[in-house]
Protein backbone atom coordinates (compact mmCIF):
# COMPACT_ATOMS: atom_id res chain seq x y z
CA UNK A 1 0.00 0.00 0.00
CA UNK A 2 2.86 2.37 0.82
CA UNK A 3 4.43 1.57 -2.55
CA UNK A 4 1.22 2.56 -4.34
CA UNK A 5 1.10 5.80 -2.38
CA UNK A 6 4.71 6.57 -3.26
CA UNK A 7 3.95 6.19 -6.98
CA UNK A 8 1.55 9.13 -6.76
CA UNK A 9 4.53 11.43 -6.26
CA UNK A 10 6.74 9.86 -8.89
CA UNK A 11 7.47 12.05 -11.88
CA UNK A 12 7.39 9.98 -15.09
CA UNK A 13 10.03 10.43 -17.75
CA UNK A 14 8.85 12.83 -20.49
CA UNK A 15 8.50 11.41 -24.03
CA UNK A 16 11.64 11.52 -26.12
CA UNK A 17 11.77 14.56 -28.39
CA UNK A 18 10.83 13.76 -31.99
CA UNK A 19 11.22 15.57 -35.29
CA UNK A 20 8.87 18.57 -35.54
CA UNK A 21 5.72 17.65 -37.45
CA UNK A 22 3.01 19.82 -38.95
CA UNK A 23 0.64 20.60 -41.81
CA UNK A 24 1.07 22.28 -45.18
CA UNK A 25 -2.32 23.17 -46.64
CA UNK A 26 -2.27 23.91 -50.38
CA UNK A 27 -5.49 25.84 -51.01
CA UNK A 28 -5.10 25.50 -54.79
CA UNK A 29 -5.85 21.78 -54.44
CA UNK A 30 -8.79 22.08 -52.04
CA UNK A 31 -12.13 21.09 -53.62
CA UNK A 32 -14.28 21.91 -50.59
CA UNK A 33 -15.43 18.33 -50.03
CA UNK A 34 -15.14 18.66 -46.23
CA UNK A 35 -13.73 15.16 -45.87
CA UNK A 36 -11.18 16.64 -43.46
CA UNK A 37 -13.92 18.14 -41.27
CA UNK A 38 -15.81 14.86 -41.11
CA UNK A 39 -12.71 12.73 -40.50
CA UNK A 40 -11.58 15.06 -37.72
CA UNK A 41 -14.93 14.90 -35.97
CA UNK A 42 -15.21 11.16 -36.39
CA UNK A 43 -11.74 10.31 -35.08
CA UNK A 44 -11.81 12.78 -32.19
CA UNK A 45 -15.45 11.96 -31.35
CA UNK A 46 -16.53 15.58 -31.66
CA UNK A 47 -20.26 16.35 -31.82
CA UNK A 48 -21.86 17.45 -35.07
CA UNK A 49 -22.69 21.14 -35.36
CA UNK A 50 -23.59 23.75 -37.94
CA UNK A 51 -26.93 22.31 -39.01
CA UNK A 52 -28.23 25.72 -39.98
CA UNK A 53 -28.33 27.68 -43.21
CA UNK A 54 -25.75 30.45 -42.90
CA UNK A 55 -26.25 31.90 -46.36
CA UNK A 56 -22.46 32.02 -46.70
CA UNK A 57 -21.94 29.77 -49.71
CA UNK A 58 -21.71 26.11 -48.62
CA UNK A 59 -20.13 26.99 -45.28
CA UNK A 60 -22.28 25.69 -42.43
CA UNK A 61 -19.73 25.65 -39.59
CA UNK A 62 -18.47 29.23 -40.29
CA UNK A 63 -15.40 29.06 -38.01
CA UNK A 64 -13.12 26.97 -35.85
CA UNK A 65 -14.47 26.19 -32.40
CA UNK A 66 -14.20 23.82 -29.45
CA UNK A 67 -16.03 21.18 -31.49
CA UNK A 68 -14.85 22.10 -35.00
CA UNK A 69 -11.07 21.65 -35.28
CA UNK A 70 -11.01 21.75 -39.09
CA UNK A 71 -13.10 24.28 -40.99
CA UNK A 72 -13.41 24.49 -44.77
CA UNK A 73 -13.94 28.08 -45.89
CA UNK A 74 -15.65 28.90 -49.20
CA UNK A 75 -14.77 32.27 -50.77
CA UNK A 76 -16.76 33.14 -53.87
CA UNK A 77 -15.14 35.89 -55.94
CA UNK A 78 -17.58 36.92 -58.63
CA UNK A 79 -18.43 40.04 -60.61
CA UNK A 80 -16.70 43.26 -61.60
CA UNK A 81 -14.56 43.54 -58.44
CA UNK A 82 -12.28 40.67 -59.48
CA UNK A 83 -10.27 40.05 -62.65
CA UNK A 84 -11.86 36.65 -63.14
CA UNK A 85 -14.58 34.70 -61.40
CA UNK A 86 -13.19 32.06 -59.09
CA UNK A 87 -14.00 30.04 -56.00
CA UNK A 88 -11.32 29.90 -53.33
CA UNK A 89 -11.44 27.16 -50.69
CA UNK A 90 -9.28 26.59 -47.64
CA UNK A 91 -9.26 24.01 -44.88
CA UNK A 92 -8.41 26.04 -41.78
CA UNK A 93 -6.89 24.57 -38.61
CA UNK A 94 -4.82 25.50 -35.56
CA UNK A 95 -1.55 27.07 -36.71
CA UNK A 96 0.63 25.35 -34.07
CA UNK A 97 2.76 28.48 -33.82
CA UNK A 98 6.45 28.04 -33.03
CA UNK A 99 6.02 30.79 -30.43
CA UNK A 100 2.36 30.44 -29.53
CA UNK A 101 0.54 33.30 -27.74
CA UNK A 102 -1.91 30.82 -26.21
CA UNK A 103 0.94 28.90 -24.59
CA UNK A 104 2.51 32.13 -23.34
CA UNK A 105 -0.79 33.29 -21.85
CA UNK A 106 -1.74 30.04 -20.10
CA UNK A 107 -1.35 30.51 -16.31
CA UNK A 108 -1.57 26.84 -15.34
CA UNK A 109 0.87 25.22 -17.75
CA UNK A 110 -1.99 23.40 -19.43
CA UNK A 111 -0.79 24.36 -22.93
CA UNK A 112 2.52 22.76 -23.83
CA UNK A 113 4.60 21.72 -26.82
CA UNK A 114 4.52 17.96 -27.10
CA UNK A 115 7.38 15.83 -28.40
CA UNK A 116 6.30 16.49 -32.01
CA UNK A 117 6.49 20.27 -31.56
CA UNK A 118 2.68 20.63 -31.64
CA UNK A 119 0.80 23.03 -29.35
CA UNK A 120 -1.22 20.73 -27.10
CA UNK A 121 -3.88 21.51 -24.45
CA UNK A 122 -3.92 19.26 -21.38
CA UNK A 123 -7.58 19.28 -20.38
CA UNK A 124 -6.90 17.92 -16.89
CA UNK A 125 -4.81 21.01 -16.06
CA UNK A 126 -6.90 23.64 -17.88
CA UNK A 127 -8.86 25.83 -15.45
CA UNK A 128 -11.07 27.40 -18.10
CA UNK A 129 -9.78 30.95 -17.59
CA UNK A 130 -10.01 31.70 -21.33
CA UNK A 131 -6.73 33.66 -21.52
CA UNK A 132 -5.64 31.47 -24.45
CA UNK A 133 -8.86 32.24 -26.32
CA UNK A 134 -8.16 35.97 -26.13
CA UNK A 135 -4.44 35.61 -26.89
CA UNK A 136 -4.80 33.64 -30.15
CA UNK A 137 -4.88 36.04 -33.15
CA UNK A 138 -6.38 33.34 -35.37
CA UNK A 139 -9.51 32.61 -33.32
CA UNK A 140 -8.58 28.94 -32.98
CA UNK A 141 -9.30 28.12 -29.35
CA UNK A 142 -12.70 28.09 -27.74
CA UNK A 143 -14.08 27.03 -24.36
CA UNK A 144 -16.40 24.05 -24.27
CA UNK A 145 -19.78 24.75 -22.65
CA UNK A 146 -19.90 21.30 -21.07
CA UNK A 147 -16.54 21.14 -19.28
CA UNK A 148 -15.45 24.81 -19.41
CA UNK A 149 -12.02 23.90 -20.79
CA UNK A 150 -10.29 25.09 -23.96
CA UNK A 151 -10.24 22.69 -26.90
CA UNK A 152 -8.55 22.69 -30.30
CA UNK A 153 -6.68 20.57 -32.86
CA UNK A 154 -4.18 18.09 -31.40
CA UNK A 155 -2.70 17.04 -34.78
CA UNK A 156 -4.18 13.67 -33.81
CA UNK A 157 -1.58 13.22 -31.07
CA UNK A 158 -2.81 9.69 -30.38
CA UNK A 159 -2.38 8.72 -34.03
CA UNK A 160 1.07 10.31 -34.26
CA UNK A 161 2.29 8.28 -31.28
CA UNK A 162 1.33 5.15 -33.22
CA UNK A 163 3.06 6.36 -36.39
CA UNK A 164 -0.21 7.20 -38.17
CA UNK A 165 -1.14 10.23 -40.26
CA UNK A 166 -3.69 12.64 -38.72
CA UNK A 167 -7.26 11.88 -39.78
CA UNK A 168 -7.75 15.08 -41.83
CA UNK A 169 -4.65 14.57 -43.97
CA UNK A 170 -5.42 10.87 -44.35
CA UNK A 171 -8.94 11.62 -45.62
CA UNK A 172 -8.04 14.46 -48.02
CA UNK A 173 -8.65 13.11 -51.56
CA UNK A 174 -6.54 15.73 -53.37
CA UNK A 175 -3.64 15.87 -50.88
CA UNK A 176 -4.40 19.53 -50.27
CA UNK A 177 -3.53 18.79 -46.63
CA UNK A 178 -0.01 17.44 -46.35
CA UNK A 179 1.41 16.15 -43.07
CA UNK A 180 5.05 15.46 -42.28
CA UNK A 181 8.32 16.84 -40.93
CA UNK A 182 8.34 20.64 -41.09
CA UNK A 183 11.65 20.82 -42.97
CA UNK A 184 10.32 18.50 -45.68
CA UNK A 185 7.00 20.36 -45.89
CA UNK A 186 8.85 23.65 -46.45
CA UNK A 187 10.70 22.10 -49.41
CA UNK A 188 7.46 20.73 -50.89
CA UNK A 189 5.69 24.07 -50.40
CA UNK A 190 8.40 26.19 -52.02
CA UNK A 191 8.59 23.83 -54.98
CA UNK A 192 4.81 24.07 -55.37
CA UNK A 193 4.90 27.89 -55.37
CA UNK A 194 7.59 27.85 -58.08
CA UNK A 195 5.49 25.41 -60.11
CA UNK A 196 2.43 27.66 -59.88
CA UNK A 197 4.46 30.72 -60.86
CA UNK A 198 5.72 28.88 -63.94
CA UNK A 199 2.10 28.12 -64.84
CA UNK A 200 1.22 31.80 -64.68
CA UNK A 201 -0.31 31.89 -61.18
CA UNK A 202 1.92 34.73 -59.99
CA UNK A 203 -0.23 35.48 -56.95
CA UNK A 204 0.63 32.20 -55.22
CA UNK A 205 2.62 32.57 -51.99
CA UNK A 206 3.17 30.92 -48.60
CA UNK A 207 1.53 32.21 -45.45
CA UNK A 208 3.22 31.41 -42.14
CA UNK A 209 6.20 29.48 -43.50
CA UNK A 210 8.53 32.17 -42.16
CA UNK A 211 8.39 34.53 -39.21
CA UNK A 212 6.99 38.00 -39.92
CA UNK A 213 7.46 40.99 -37.65
CA UNK A 214 6.72 40.09 -34.06
CA UNK A 215 5.14 36.76 -35.00
CA UNK A 216 6.89 33.41 -35.33
CA UNK A 217 6.59 30.97 -38.20
CA UNK A 218 3.68 28.51 -38.15
CA UNK A 219 4.01 24.74 -38.07
CA UNK A 220 0.69 24.64 -39.87
CA UNK A 221 1.13 26.95 -42.84
CA UNK A 222 -0.73 27.64 -46.08
CA UNK A 223 -0.36 28.33 -49.79
CA UNK A 224 -2.71 31.18 -50.72
CA UNK A 225 -3.77 32.94 -53.94
CA UNK A 226 -5.11 36.16 -52.42
CA UNK A 227 -4.29 38.37 -49.45
CA UNK A 228 -4.70 36.74 -46.02
CA UNK A 229 -7.78 38.73 -45.02
CA UNK A 230 -9.72 37.16 -47.89
CA UNK A 231 -9.25 33.81 -46.12
CA UNK A 232 -10.11 35.35 -42.71
CA UNK A 233 -6.44 35.30 -41.69
CA UNK A 234 -4.73 38.33 -40.10
CA UNK A 235 -2.40 40.27 -42.39
CA UNK A 236 0.01 40.85 -39.49
CA UNK A 237 -0.85 38.62 -36.49
CA UNK A 238 -0.13 40.11 -33.07
CA UNK A 239 1.60 38.35 -30.20
CA UNK A 240 0.50 39.96 -26.90
CA UNK A 241 3.65 38.93 -25.03
CA UNK A 242 5.76 40.98 -27.46
CA UNK A 243 4.13 44.14 -26.09
CA UNK A 244 4.58 43.35 -22.41
CA UNK A 245 7.21 45.22 -20.44
CA UNK A 246 10.04 42.89 -19.49
CA UNK A 247 10.70 42.32 -15.81
CA UNK A 248 13.84 43.98 -14.56
Kindly describe this structure.
With 248 residues, this protein is α+β, with helices and mostly antiparallel strands. Helix content is 21%, strand content 17%. It has 7 helices and 10 strands. It has helices spanning 2-7, 35-44, 101-105, 131-135, 157-161, 167-171, 182-198; strands at 21-26, 71-77, 86-92, 111-113, 119-121, 142-143, 150-151, 177-181, 205-207, 220-224. The model has no long low-confidence stretch (mean pLDDT 93).
Task: Indicate the proportion of strand residues.
Answer: 15-25%
Instruction: Specify the oligomeric state.
Output: single chain
Total helical elements: 7
Output the helix-strand order: HEHEEHEEHEEHHEHEE
Strand order of the largest sheet: 8-1-10-9
Strand segment count: 10
Radius of gyration: 19 Å
**How would the global form be characterised?**
globular
Q: Tell me the major beta sheet.
A: 4 strands, mixed
Helix content: 10-25%
Instruction: Give the structural class.
Output: alpha+beta
The average pLDDT score comes to: 93
Query: Low-confidence spans: pLDDT under 50, at least 5 residues?
Result: none
Termini, distance in Å?
48 Å
Amino acid sequence: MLENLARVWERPEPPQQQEEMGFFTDTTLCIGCKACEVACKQWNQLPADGFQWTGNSYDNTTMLSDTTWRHVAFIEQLGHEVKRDRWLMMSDVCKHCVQAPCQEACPTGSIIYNEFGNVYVQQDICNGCGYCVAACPFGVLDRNQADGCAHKCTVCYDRQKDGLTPACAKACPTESIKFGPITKLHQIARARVEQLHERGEQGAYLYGAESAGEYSELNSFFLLLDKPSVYNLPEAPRRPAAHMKARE
